[in-house]
């Protein structure tokens, strides 16, 4: 019997140039989630589906996260045609991806989002994934660089965007990620500040029921961890 490949090609219409394009997906049955880091970076047994989340149109160069590929407005479409398509060399992104191929695709998505002036939460999501790809590759310097970009975009998103609408990043997860990224980047005082905001929301009856219990419990653990690190650092100085 022929071995079943862990990935396959499927079709989607490009919302920018209207071409019927192919992109590669991982068969969910062939993978197993092994664990997740505290910033949600996942580890799989089998092919890593994160590698395939950046979908690029080979015809016009439009690229987006697979969950957002169709969500593009008239203004953004015009920006992509003007900024991306005019300079685009047609090339394919289907088939198996390694980290380098995945990075190339994700960086094109980041370029698209920047050129179309997309919401900061979208930019943050892509920066996070690029940081994870560098983490898989043990490249901590570049990982930190993109965690930093993700952090700045999440902070802007928290201040600017309506995070109450369905299907988008919610305000509680946003607070959590900001606290977690500050911790990863050794900004302990900021980390405590952002985790505290989330923990305080949980004491407010208006918010309490809307915050997932696991998120709040993890936030409390991480808050304590950061406090301990700060106390230990203080002892070293004293
Ligand atoms: Zn296209």
Describe this structure as you would to a colleague.
The chain is α+β, with helices and mostly antiparallel strands. The protein has 2 domains: 1-163, no CATH class; 170-238, no CATH class. 51% of the residues lie in helices and 12% in strands. The protein has helices spanning 74-83, 99-115, 120-136, 140-160, 171-184, 188-201, 205-208, 213-237, and strands at residues 7-13, 20-26, 32-36, 42-45, 54-56, 63-65. The strands form 3 sheets. It has a two-stranded antiparallel ribbon with strand order 1-2. A two-stranded antiparallel sheet has the order 3-4. A two-stranded antiparallel ribbon has the order 5-6. Strand 1 (7-13) and strand 2 (20-26) form a beta hairpin. The mean pLDDT is 95. It binds zinc ion. Zinc ion (ZN) binds at residues 14, 16-17, 19, 57, 59-60, 62.
Please outline the major beta sheet: 2 strands, antiparallel
As laid out across the biggest beta sheet, the strand order is: 1-2
Total discrete domains: 2
Cα-atom Rg, whole angstroms? 20 Å
CA-CA gap between termini: 69 Å
Please give the share of residues in helix.
40-55%
